[in-house]
Amino acid sequence: MKIQYASYQDTIDFLQSAMSAHPHLIRLQSIGETWEGRPIMLVTISLDVTYADDKPALLYTGSIHAREWIGNELAVKFVQYVIDNYRFNPKLQNALTRNTLYMVPCLNPDGFEYSRNHFSFWRKNRRNNGDGTFGVDLNRNFDAKFMRNQNTGSNTYGGPHAFSEPETCAIRDFVESHENIRIALDYHSQGNVFFPAHKFNHEVEIEGTDLNVLCANMNHEIKKVTGRQYGIHRGKPPAQLIHGSGREYYYRKGIIATVVEVGTRNIPDYMKNMSESVAENIPAVQYALSEAINYSPLAPKRVAGFTIKSVAHDSVELEWQYEDRDDIYFEVYRSQHNKNPCGEETLVAITKTLSFTDSQLLSGHSYFYNIRAVDKVTKIKSPFSPELRLKTRLARTESARTLFPARESVGYLSQNNQAKNKEHFGYNSMFIGVDKKRGVSMGVVQFDLSSINAGSQILSAQFFIYPMNRVAAKIEKYGEWSVAILDADQIEDIYDYAAIAEAKPLHTLGQTIESDKLTQGIWLKWQFNGVERSLLAKLLKQQRLLLRLQGPKKLPLGKDSQVMQFDIGYGPFGSGLHYRPNLELVYQLPEQQLVLSPLACNTIYKDKVVADKLASGFDTEGDIVYGQMSFDLNVDLPVERTVFTNACLTVRSCNSIASARDVRFTIELVELRDVDYQHVKQRQKIEYIGYEVSNEQLRERAEHHFIFDSYSLQELERLHQAQTPFYFIIRATAESQATDALVNWTNCQDQQPAQLKIDYIARRKHPVAAPHNLQTQVENGVVKLTWDNEEDEDLVGFFVVRNRFHPPRSPFDGVKLYGGRDNYTLDNFGTPDIAKYYAVFSYDDVPNYSQPVTIYYPGKTEG
Fold first, then answer.
1. Distance from C-alpha of 72 to C-alpha of 40, rounded to nearest angstrom
2. For the chain, where do the domains classified as CATH 3.40.630.10 start and end?
3. Residue closest to 237 by CA, chosen among 849, 828, 837
4. Angle between helices 8-21 and 70-85 (to 10 degrees)
5. Which Pfam families does this entry report, sorted A to Z (predicted)?
6. What CA–CA distance (Å, rounded) separates 476 from 276?
7. pLDDT in tens, 287-341
8. What's the pLDDT tens digit per position in 683-700?
9. Cβ burial 500-534 (10 Å sphere, 16+ → b, else e)
10. Fold for domain 592-762?
11. What is the DSSP string of 707-724?
């Protein structure tokens, strides 16, 4: 047996000794007795422990499954950590002063000892079932959706009825007599993943963000110790969820609850793997303990109405509601990833106001925002508001696509199942790595790029894939997973294992991901760098992007599996469109260019206008002389579908000024009604074009380029929309009085006249009309939405989103239900019993999204 681990009696002896040495800190009690007569021990830790039950509390339970020894071992080591550090560690002191820790190191003592002394992988307790079998899975014996199972020999047999077992009754009775419990952690192995509680449906709960942030911040503490990253995965409601678990029982009682699955083996190498797991989870448990008070009646109430006021391509304005209190301020957090920690690294605002504008954002990118209220005196924080997700608008020159692989273009190929490899496509999930059954398995994802014009410039590209299960990755810190771009033209059959396995990559995307950073339940993202984006732009001609996903190819002696499972969103057990691999692209369409010559040139003196001649400077009296040019597009470019991307005005100088006087020349884009001295002098300047040209530069070269900045480029578009000519003034300036300082610019009759070059793309500027007449009704137990729309040749489709808490103001502000041309959809992912908001947006091929049409669906209850 594994003698490095503490036995149950060792644990009791240690806790009794700890209580004797630290009676002000530790209290030990039995909360029940097992079938075999062992006490179920609970240790209470707090400063001062006499008042422990009056403080907000964290409940820790371990080893409810007998073979999962980490729960008991971590508990022992955490108690020792508290004893060794509470006197001088300010964070620990603060956590123990404000909060209480209730810790049941082992909730299954009989099974634990049976596992230690006879059968290592025993899971259940030791109830005599009376039919020759023993044991009940205690984590199926709570009354949270308890499910009867007649197979008493099953490892997941839940017992004859809910709370049939003394162990579950003991923890139930303790919880129900301690209303101060605010957070519950249930420690298991294996998987390196958090499993937050759920309510057996697809609807987002008000506490959903609290659960994810608690896990993400614990994850952050873990990563600081070992670099390991745990997954965060709530399962796939409403099917395939465990029933009768303690986690859901706690959650139903209003306790923020999560299972923590640790390590990659139930009983790992103690000195190497278990010691790492303990070390990384100690600060995570301490963090969770410190948060208990933030979910107690002492905490400020949750911020209400946290929503999006407006979204631009580089900024977003958020707003919320709160009672007027001088003692409250707000913390706003922002991340580019879901399930990210909310801490100093992501804190973007501390404010007293009820709004916040976040700027300098990337266009066409997703952002996640969280907010909580803080008491400025006590520093106690509120629970989190439901997380906001949005995507910034596209910049004026940009287009975007989110591409999904077709069913037949995503799957995996196995070395040992080559005859059935085609069946692995479009069916359930991808298995990538190596195991005894399949041999080496590789994933294949092919995207159709035909909707993107060849010659487009790829500005941003991100590949996303969802890891749904890492239990079969059984070896700690072994192997790396990577994504390679293959030459699709060289692969005749994507279902041919040898062809895919032996293909030489055109490029491997970004960094490989090590096994202990391959998280379950958190989207993996590969961001294309500049070289990779250039390669992708070249592949637009092939109209396909073929990716190969691979992991380790060999197993160490005695190991049987190192495989990650990824969702593909297809098949009866795929999780649907929300979980499909996807490629997000932001790009600029191929540019076209206009080269314009001046429609007119004039030199404007104080007392005359000289046509067809372009000069500027100062006359013999020192009065300024203006040069004036006008250009006309003289081509039919549709205003609504023309976006100017670049512009440059090129002029040539015929001479420079003889004197050494510092005379400089600027070009202005102007509004001009008449070409005479008085009107030019009183002109309405729009913007300078480029930078001024000095006399010295005139001597050095004759050709001068004036580049339009972003503002002047948009003004050029405005003038195009108004169908007016483009007027430019060349104006001279001098640091002191200048006379007889005139520069002649190219005459309009010259062979090489001045040129205005304008690059442009054909891109719609504004959204199509919003849909209207949005209605809901329940059909066959499912909410059906219908709407009408205005006919528009540029309409591509409709985007439907659901939000439990407020009307969606962005197409990404909630759960996506549909994207397509139909005028109806079904909410197959929710329940008609619960109230919610729906919104429908129209979109074009850019896509530009219309303003939403929204509706409140009252449900059968307001819960």
1. 12
2. 8-295
3. 828
4. 20
5. Peptidase_M14
6. 10
7. 999 999 999 999 999 999 999 999 999 999 999 999 999 999 999 999 999 899 9
8. 888 889 999 999 889 989
9. beebeebbebeeebebbbbbbbbbbebebeeebbe
10. Jelly Rolls (2.60.120)
11. E--HHHHHHHHHHHHTT-
Residues paired with residue 374 on neighbouring β-strands, in sequence order:
329, 381
Average pLDDT over residues 770-774: 96
As a whole number, mean pLDDT of residues 233-243 equals: 70
Q: Given strand 316-321, what is the order of strands in its sheet?
A: 304-311, 316-321, 355-358
Would you give the DSSP letter of residue 470? -
Give the C-alpha separation, 576 to 256, whole Å. 28
CATH class (in words) of the domain with range 304-397: mainly beta
* Helix ranges (DSSP H) in 121-256: 166-176, 208-226, 246-252
Answer whether residue 484 shows pLDDT above 60: yes
Which CATH superfamily includes the segment(s) 772-857? Immunoglobulins (2.60.40.10)
Nearest by Cα to 753 from 651, 630, 665, 602: 651
Return the structure tokens found at 102.
Answer: 């209730």
Residue 862 has pLDDT above 60, yes or no: no
| CATH number, span 402-588 | 2.60.120
Half-sphere exposure (CA, 13 Å, Cβ side) for 313?
11
Angle between the N-to-C axes of helices 90-98 and 70-85, in degrees from 0 to 180, rounded to the nearest 10: 110
Please tell me the distance from the alpha carbon of residue 575 to that of residue 691, in angstroms, as a whole number: 56
**Per-residue tokens: 244:** 């009768």
Selection from 340, 498, 497 nearest residue 424 by Cα: 497
Stated pTM of the model: 0.93
Does residue 546 register a pLDDT over 50?
yes
pLDDT in tens, 79-126: 999 999 999 999 999 999 999 999 999 999 999 999 999 999 999 999
